[in-house]
Amino acid sequence: MASLYLNRLNPEQRQQLIQQLHEAQHGHCFICEQDVDLVVHKDEIDIDHVVPLKVGGKDDPSNFALTHASCNRSKQASNLEVARVLQRFARLKEQLAEENRAPNLGDLLKREGGGNQALGFKLEGDEVVYSFSALGDNTLYRVPNYKDELSGFRYFFAKVPIEYLAHDARINPRAIGANISKLVEEFHQGRPQLHVPLAWIASTEGKSAIHIFDGQHKAAAQILLGVKRLPVRVFIDPDPETLITANTNAGTTLKQVAFDKSVQRHLGSTLYWDRIDRFQKETSRQEEDLSFSERDLVSYYKGQSREIKRYILDSVRDWVTSHPDNRLRDFIDFGGRGKERPLSYSTIDKTFYSFFIYQEVLETPINWRFEEGENARELEKSQILALMNLIADEIYVGKFDPEVGTDKIESRLQKGEDFAFPHLRAFRMSKEEILYNWLRYVQQIAKMYFISTGKPIVEEKLFQYHFPEQLWENIRHFVRNLAALPFWVNRDLSATAFGGKQVNNYWQTVFESGKTPQGVQVLAQPLNLIELIK
Ligand SMILES: [Zn+2]
């Protein structure tokens, strides 16, 4: 904002002010905290109000800060202290983007030195006694030990140094979302929010970190603003399954929080293993005893058959998605809003996972023919992963360039911009309605193979049958030959076939007839799967 004070300064006075601010800020930009070089950055330096004038900031040196001009232009809040905090968060986000993930409370705590201490405490009558000895505070704090009226869990309230706080990524696998910036602003203005996150502590080990599982965003906003002690409601030895279910329902049934689909899948998978665990205990089985079926689980947890079924399928999806050898993963956008990666998680869910995962529960024991490598679910998982890797190698790795990304590619093409062919092809083959069709041909090719060898199969369980080498060869040829068709890189089609979002049937018509429903010629001839697998 314009400053009368600054306008009145002559060049020498202004230079003097810049020198003073530069010294006071130890040579750092107020927003990005990187070096400001008064020579190198000479004409790219701003003086701005820390607190904007329109909200009562003073127009004098006590309220001035020195910034890079570019930082000031691109700041995310008009208050410079808030802008600086958000810039710190943006940097953390950038660092983690390389791992294809966004920061959670744990990352933030780690950056601030939190999460590395376990609290020593004991339960004494109706009180909880603890101290922060690791920080040199040996005071014995005594607080009431309450009982939650509805869940029956015991809990206490405490104001806890961040050193003792940890993030529970198992119960709450979400990342911190974009709405954090609004929360930071509200907290910064001193407007009270629900400051108190929910956490749990285990009494069995004698010492335990305090694991926050709910209220991550508000905790993060406070920590970003420099708060070093957080008020926390700490449950003592709660049932983890109840907490996971509560958190899953917050995203699904209650829709209180926006959950990414992949996060839901992950939670479902965690719940599946918890249910197996419980089933084993309650039926007096050993931990390694998996001689019961998915059907047995569904029958055992009466009244929850839909949930259990979902957890079973979620565990398959989550295994494939998060497998460390999954090479397609780098090309999947898990938030679904980015412009760097060509595939959204939702597309993966609606194609790979809905086509290739058997959607019903199995009657065979979970460990059935496991040793022989013929276990149905294991085969299904590993063959879906193998298919993803085959496709990643043929179409994406070293071909799709995340730096170029996906933003407005078709309209940029129409304006004459050029893209490397492999990049353009990968982008186009990834569109959901297109992938939907050609992945179904992979399904068809596998069926054709089994028919030609005379092997009887149940179509819905396709990926639960072992794929011989020859079938993998067929699939690889299909993907390679399909990708080699010239229409993928035909720029004239950006206004027609590839322009805008189409329905699945549109591309079915193209692949079956060579033409769009409007009669635009796309392929020289209809696809022929026999030709394509050669
Ligand atoms: Zn800067």
Question: Can you put this structure into words, describing what you see?
Answer:
The chain has helices at residues 4-8, 11-24, 69-73, 80-97, 105-111, 180-188, 216-224, 240-251, 261-282, 294-300, 305-322, 345-356, 376-396, 409-414, 421-429, 432-453, 469-483, 504-513, 529-532; strands spanning 45-49, 64-68, 119-124, 127-132, 137-144, 146-147, 154-161, 165-167, 198-201, 207-208, 210-214, 229-236, 332-333, 343-344. Helix content is 42%, strand content 12%. The strands form four sheets. A six-stranded mixed β-sheet has the order 6-7-12-9-11-8. It is flat. The model has no long low-confidence stretch (mean pLDDT 92). It has 19 helices and 14 strands. It starts with a helix and ends with a helix. The chain has three domains: 4-75, His-Me finger endonuclease fold (3-Layer(aba) Sandwich); 105-251, Conserved hypothetical protein from pyrococcus furiosus pfu- 392566-001, ParB domain (Alpha-Beta Complex), CATH 3.90.1530; 261-532, no CATH class. It has 534 residues and is of the alpha+beta class. It binds zinc ion.
**Rg to the nearest angstrom?**
29 Å
Helix content: 40-55%
List how many beta strands DSSP finds.
Answer: 14
How many helices?
A: 19
Number of domains: 3
The structure class reads: alpha+beta
Average pLDDT across residues? Answer: 92
What topology, given as strand order, has the largest sheet? 6-7-12-9-11-8
Main sheet specs: 6 strands, mixed
Proportion of residues in β-strands: 5-15%
Uncertain ranges: none
Global shape: flat
Bound molecules: zinc ion
Taking the alpha carbons of the first and last residues, their distance comes to: 68 Å
